[in-house]
Amino acid sequence: MTTIIDTIIPTESVLSSILSEIVNSNVEETNYVINALENVVNLLNKDGKTYISYGPWWPAIKNLIIENGNTNLGQVVESDVAQIYSYSRPALTILAGIMYSASRLNDHVVTDPYHYLDVSQSADDTEHYLYVSTDESIDKYQFPH
Questions:
Q1: pTM, to two decimals
Q2: Domains in the chain, number
Q3: Cβ(33)–Cβ(69) under 8 Å?
Q4: DSSP secondary-structure letter at 140?
Q5: What sign has the CA pseudo-torsion 23, 43, 50, 136?
Q6: Which terminal residue of the chain, N or C, has fewer Cβ atoms less than 10 Å from its own Cβ?
Q7: Are 129 and 7 in contact (CB under 8 A)?
Q8: Which long-range contacts (CB under 8 A, 24 or more apart) does 48-53 make?
Q9: Residue 98, class by beta-carbon neighbours within 10 Å (0-12 exposed, 13-18 middle, 19+ buried)?
Q10: What domain range is 27 assigned to?
Q11: In whole angstroms, what is the distance from residue 64 CA to residue 99 CA?
């Protein structure tokens, strides 16, 4: 049976290459992380359903938001998904999530909670893996809909 661990995510080297076009020092990378997380929170303040566009990247991004001291989104995170969709550098995790979100915007499915993720050829089943975006803290308590 295919699981979320079988899904295909960009490699760190691909993301590092893209990130190097955006920032060129550790200070700039730190600023990128801070600014990107602030932008995500600002978008959520305007429309709470925005988190859905990040799909399986959302738990990892939410972890980064919490780690940076903002617990206004709640503190419950799908830790298994966050672990799979996190990289060694926060900037890479955020970049991957933003790229994924942009693809959802391009496909006009920003608030569709159903994400059909590609899986590796070595998976038991090569059908898309269905990931459903949910965040009870946001959906029920925190932000406008």
A1: 0.90
A2: 1
A3: no
A4: I
A5: positive
A6: N
A7: yes
A8: 48/138, 48/139, 48/142, 48/143, 48/144, 48/145, 49/111, 49/145, 50/110, 51/133, 51/135, 51/138, 52/110, 52/111, 52/112, 52/113, 52/133, 53/100, 53/101, 53/104, 53/105, 53/110, 53/111
A9: middle
A10: 4-142
A11: 17
| Cβ-contact 51, 138 below 8 angstroms | yes
* Structural tokens at position 122: 């070595």
* pLDDT recorded at residue 145: 43
Both structure tokens of 136: 């009870």
Q: What is the pLDDT of residues 60-107, one digit of tens each?
A: 999 999 999 998 888 989 999 999 999 999 999 999 999 999 999 888
Length of the chain: 145
Q: Are 113 and 52 in contact (CB under 8 A)?
A: yes
Indicate the DSSP class of residue 78. -
